[in-house]
Amino acid sequence: MSLLDQCRHCDTPLSAEEQTSRLCDECSYFAADYQRYDALREEGYMPYQAKLICGLADPPDPDDE
What we know:
With 65 residues, the chain is mainly α. 32% of the residues lie in helices and 0% in strands.
């Protein structure tokens, strides 16, 4: 199974109609965030930076250090 056959948020296998957005039905509310993420990646942001900006990742917890 390729990465294109899995939801890009939760890794659930996708049906044929879900493959265009690469998001499953349960994660479809992240579509706008992932569109912004893709745009930031095209602008040259690193993956983690783009995820932080879009709210798809949490910053490191300073108490964990």
